[in-house]
Amino acid sequence: MAPAKKGILERLNAGEVVIGDGGFVFALEKRGYVKAGPWTPEAAAEYPEAVRQLHREFLRAGANVMQTFTFYASDDKLENRGNKLTFTGAQINEAACDLAREVANEGDALVAGGVSQTPSYLSCKSETDVKAIFKKQLDVFIKKDVDFLIAEYFEHVEEAVWAVEVLKETGKPVAASLCIGPDGDMHGISPAECAVRLVKAGAQIVGINCHFDPMTCVKAVKMMKEGVEKAGLKAHYMVQPLAFHTPDCNCQGFIDLPEFPFGLEPRILSRWDMHKYAREAYNAGIHFIGGCCGFEPYHIRAVAEELAPERGFLPAASEKHGNWGAGLEMHTKPWVRARARRDYWENLKPASGRPQCPSMAVPDGWGVTKGHADLMQQREATSQDQLKQLFDRSKTH
After folding, report:
1. Is residue 97 part of an annotated ligand binding site?
2. Does the residue 77 lie in any domain?
C-alpha cells in the first residue's frame, strides 16, 4: 500500500511550493472538446480520454494539484441560455473526480474539487438558493473524497463567502480564489477586505485566479496578504492567473477585451515570462502557484523549472527541455545555437508579426454587474430579438 500523501495544508505549513495545473476550459476548447460561450465541462463525461490526457500533461509538467474539471458544473449553469446536455451535473462532477484521482495517483499530486460563481447569484437569487447549488456539487466531492476544496472564479466576494461557508462544513481544507484585480470585486470591495472576509468565513488559502495577467494577479494577492496580516489573521496564498498580457484591462478583466475569446493569441505569455511570474509570486510569499485560462503544460513546466531550486527537483517534462534553451546547442544552424543562453531569452522583446495591429485595445466597459437587468439569466436560449438589442447596443460602446 502506497504511503499517505501529505495534504495541502501540511505542504504549505512546511513551506513547500505547490504548483497548480492550467486552464482546462480554454485548453480543451482549442482541442475541440469544450464549447466557447457556456464553457461547461461535460467533456469529463463525454470525452474522458481528452480530460485524462490534459491532466497527465500538467502532472508531467510539474503540477502537484489536479483540479477536478468541474468549472461551471452547477446545474443552473449547465442549463443556462438553452444549453442542452445529455449528462447531469452529478454525472459530470463524478466523472471529473474520477479522472483527477486516477492521474493524481500516478504522481505525488492532490485532488481539489472546485465550485465557481453561479448564474443564480447574478440573477439575485437568495443566499439559501445559491448555497443549495454549491451543496449539490459538494455532495459529489464528499462521495469521491477529494483532498481539498477550492471556491474559484468569483467576481463578487459575497458569493465567494457563501461558497466557503458551505465548503468548510466538510472539514476539508478550503481555498478561495477571486477573479478580481487590484481595483477589487465588482462591487468595489478591495482585495484586502475581500481576503479578510474569506478568511473569517473559513478559507485557509486565499488568492486570485483568471481575468488578469500574472503580474497584475500577484499585485492583487499582495494586497490581500497585507489586509489579512493587518487584521491579525493568518492564511496561505495562491495565484492562478491568465496566460495573456492584460495591461489595458479595466476592473472586469479580459472578458471586456474586444479580442475575447477568439483573438487572444497575440497576448500569450512566453515560457520565459512564466519564469518571471513564478519568481515574483514566490518572492511575494505566495506558495500555491498555478495557472488559469491560456495556460498550457509548457507554461506550468516553466513555473516548475524556475522553482526547481526551492522544490528540490525538476518536473519529468524537463527531460525534453534544456534549461534556458540549452537544447538549442544541438541545432543545425549556428545562429540558432547562439541563442542557447539565458540572457538571450530573458532580454528578448518578441515581435507580434502584425504590423497593422495596435499594441493595446479599448475594453468594452459596459459597467454592469449583479443586480443589473442585463445580467439576469434564463434557461431559454437567447432569442434573436435579444441578440439584436445587444448588437445595437454594442455599436454605442
Report:
1. no
2. yes
